[in-house]
Amino acid sequence: MNYKTIIALLVTLALFSCNKETTTPHTFTSSLWQYDTIIDSLLTQMTLEEKVNMLHGKHMFVSAGVERLGIADMRYADGPFGIREELEPNGWSPLGWENDKATFFPTGSALAATWSPELAYAYGTGMAREARLRGKDVILGPAINIQRIPTGGRTYEYLSEDPHLSAKLAVEYTKGVQDNGAAACLKHFALNNQENNRGTVNVIVGERAMREIYLPPFKAAVQEADAFSVMSAYNKVNGWWCAENDRLLNQILRNEWGFGGFVVSDWNGTHSTIASVKHGLNVEMPDSKFLGAALLDSVKAGAVSEEIIDKRVREILRVRMAIKPIPAEKANQVITSQAESQQIAYDVASKSIVLLKNEGILPIDLSNKPTIAVIGENAVREMGNGGIGAGVKTLYEITPLEGLKNRIGSRAQIIYAQGYVPVELDYARIFGNKPQEEIDREEKIKAIQNKKLNKEAIDVAAKADLVLFIGGNNRAVETEANDREHIFLPSGQDDLIKQLSVVNENIITVLVSGAPNDLNVVQPLSKALLQSWFNGTEGGNALADILLGNISPSGRLPFTLPVKLEDSPAYALGNYPQGVKSSDIFVDLVDKKETETTANADEAGNDPNTAYYSEELLVGYRWFDTKNKPVMYAFGHGLSYTSFAYSDCFTTKEKYDSNENIALSFKLSNTGSVAAEEVVQVYVHRINPEKEWPFKELKAFTRVELDSGESKTVDLQIPVQNLRYWNEETRSWADDLCEIELHIGASSADIRLKHKVLLQ
After folding, report:
1. Residues identified as active-site
2. Cα angle 456-459-465, degrees, rounded to a multiple of 5
C-alpha cells in the first residue's frame, strides 16, 4: 500500500469516527412506525427492569418479552439456507426431535447463480413458512455481505461479488420472508468479508467504496423490502465494533435510510454496555454480559438515560407488533420440511447450475445404454451439514449419485468409485492446535488411502464409456470461522483427474463447491465442466436433469473465476491475508472459552487485526476489467444447450436527465434447437467522466425464456440516480454526468451490443 493510500484511509477513519450526522435525508418510511401509538402505552406500563430484560438473550436463540403485558418472547431461527434443528435452551446440543427436520435450500452463491429475483422471493417464502411451523419469529438471514475474497469461508453463504445483483436478490428474499409472517434479519452489517480473525479485525475502508460496493444490498433490503431486523457484524469498521458503531447503526441505518426495526448482535459480538446501547444495538445475543445487569446499573447511575432504553425497546416492540407470535401448542406439530419448500429448493437448484464448458458431450446420450463411471466422494456426500456454524438437519438430501440413478434408471450402467479421501472438519488443525508431527502422520495415512482410491477409480474409468468426475469442495473445506488458504481442489483431485484422463478422455467434471476453485488442471482435461454448488435437498435431481438435457442449463456465475488466486484484487495488492490466524469468536462461544481480543502479528510484522480495502471500488470483475487481467471464467458466464442472438438495440432517448430512467430495448432470439432461458446483463461504461470509475458495472439484468426459434423484445430500465457516486467531501450522493456506453450481453466478458447515451 502506498503512502497516499494510507493517508487517504486515515482521513476517512477520522471522518467516519466523528459523530456528525449525515446531511442526506431519507425518503423511506417503514411500516413499523404504525405501531408507535400502541407502544407508547406499553412503555408507560413497563418497569425499567422489564425494559432492560428485553435487550439481551434469554436463551441461546430467544430474547425476552414481558409476559405480564402479553409481550411474547422473540424466537430466532438460525439460517440463512434452512431452519436449524432445535437445540437445548442454553447450549448447542440437539434435542433429538423428528419434527425439526427441515428443507435444505441451495446456499447463497447458488441462489445468486440463478440471477432470479423471483426465485429469491420464493426462497424467502419457503424459509418463512418452515420457520413459522416451528414457532420462530425472526430468520437470521439473508446473508448479503459482498464476496470480496475467493477464499472467504462464507463465500458459499453470501450472494455475489456484485452489489447490484446482491441487492436485487436480497430485496426479494426479504419480501418473501416478511410477506409470510416472519421477520428477516439482514446480516452481517457491515463489511464482514473474511472469516479469519473476524472477531478482532478492523476494516479500513473509504466511504465511497463502502457506499457503492458494500452497503447497497443492505440499503435496498431496508428501503425496498422494509427489512425488520439487522444483525451487526463481528468486526470493526474504521475503528468501531459494528455492534457499537454509531455511524453505521444510527447515522446511516436509522437516520439516513429510515430503518424502523431492531439490531441484534452476532452471537458473542457485543463489546460494551454504554456505547452499544447508545450507538444503536438493541439486543445482545446470546447472553447478558453487557446489556443485562451492567446496563441496569448504568441507567441507575445516570450514564445511560431511560429515554435511550425506551428507544431501543420501542424498536424491538415494533417488530413484535408486526410479527404475530405462534402459541407454543401450535408450533412443531408437523415436520418442518414441506413439499412446497422442497419444490422451491429444486427450482433454485435447477436454475443455478452453471455450464462453464461443453465440447458437445452434453447432454449425455443414453441411446446406446452407456457405462458411466461416477467418480468422486462429492457424488455421495451430503452438504446440509459438515462445517462450523450454519447447517440444516434435512428431511432428505438427494446426492448427485442418487439423482443420476433416479433419472437414468436402467438406461445406463452406473459404476461408482470414491476416488479420493475427503477433507473432514478438524478444529485443532484449523486453529493451529495440532502438533506438526501429528499432521505429518495423518498426511502419510491419507496419501496411502488416496493412492488406493485413485487406483480403484482409474480401473473403473478405463472400463467406462464416460467419466463423470464429481469433485470440488465440501462443507469442511468451506466453513464459517475459517478462510481457505488457497483455492486448489482439495484431496489431490487435480492429480486424480490427470490419471483419469490417461485412460478415458470423455470426462465431464462437476464442481460441487460454493466458491471459486483453481481450474488450470481440470479445465483442459474436461470435455464439459459444470459448477453445481451446495445445492440443497433436491440438488442431485436438479444436476441429473441438467446433465441429461431434461432442462437446459441457465445458471450464471455470481463471481469471477480467476486464472489464479493471486490475480484477485485483495491478494494482488497484498491486503489479504493480513497475518496469523487466531481462535474464532464463535468457536470460542460454542466451546465456552474466553475470546482473545487480538490476534498476534506474524514474523513479517503483518497486523492480522487490520484489513485495508485499498482496492476500493475494484472488487471482483471490476478489478479484472479495469486492470485488463485475463480470467478463467468471467462474472455472469454460463452456457446453454441452445444459442441466442442479440439485435436491434435502441433507447427511447439519446439524452437523459439525472432524474429520469434510461429505457433500453433490444431483440433476443433463440437460434438453437431447444427451449431455454437466457440471463441478459447490462453494464454501464462511462466515457470521459470527471471521477474515477471501474471500467464497467452491472446495472440491469433479467431472465428471458424462449422456445426454439422464438424472439422477444427485452425492455430494461436503469434509473440515472443509480449511476451516482458517493461524494466524500459533501458526504452525499452526486451525479457524474457524462456520455455512457451501455454494454448488453451474456456475461461481463461476452458483450453482444453497445449503445451510447448522454447523461445531462
Report:
1. 266
2. 130
